[in-house]
Write a sequence for this structure.
């Protein structure tokens, strides 16, 4: 009988602790691995200096690094050029040649606003395991509008651009004549 009482007391204690659990951790607090003000060991802000921005966390499924590209500095309005891009798969999964991971590119105007329907997506040429590189060739068509623009490269998984998951994207400034 005593063992039953002790077991019952342990169960009650366990449930009372579980009901007092803290709310889920928010991005940037100590539960997510980052030190924040008020956390023992956290850096304290220096008066008169702006606080440091927290490091961006990259979704491991989207991690990549654009190693090189041969994007021209100028293009004629509505002309098409083939751009060679080399990308390192820094993610935790293999990119398959049949998809869904693709190299995407899109155009931005001088203000940094995305130009509608001025984009493309290209499958990777071969299965690319983590920590491997792959060369990709894409046919980029310049926008009709002349002036300063940028061609942005980003990896895309189906319909989700990696930049939407806090991964870096590469923006290459160029002039459309």
């Amino acid at each position: 009988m005593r063992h039953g009482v002790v077991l019952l007391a342990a169960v009650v204690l366990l449930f009372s602790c579980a009901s007092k659990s803290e709310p889920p951790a928010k991005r940037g607090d100590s539960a997510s691995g980052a030190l924040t003000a008020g956390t023992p060991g956290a850096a304290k802000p220096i008066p008169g200096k702006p606080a440091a921005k927290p490091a961006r966390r990259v979704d491991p499924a989207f991690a990549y690094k654009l190693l090189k590209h041969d994007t021209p500095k100028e293009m004629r309005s509505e002309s098409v050029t083939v751009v060679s891009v080399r990308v390192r798969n820094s993610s935790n999964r293999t990119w398959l040649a049949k998809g869904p991971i693709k190299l995407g590119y899109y155009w931005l105007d001088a203000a940094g606003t995305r130009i509608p329907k001025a984009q493309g997506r290209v499958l990777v040429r071969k299965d690319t395991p983590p920590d491997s590189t792959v060369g990709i060739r894409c046919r980029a068509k310049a926008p009709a509008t002349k002036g300063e623009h940028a061609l942005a490269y980003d990896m895309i998984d189906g319909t989700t651009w990696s930049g939407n998951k806090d991964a870096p994207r590469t923006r290459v400034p160029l002039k459309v004549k």
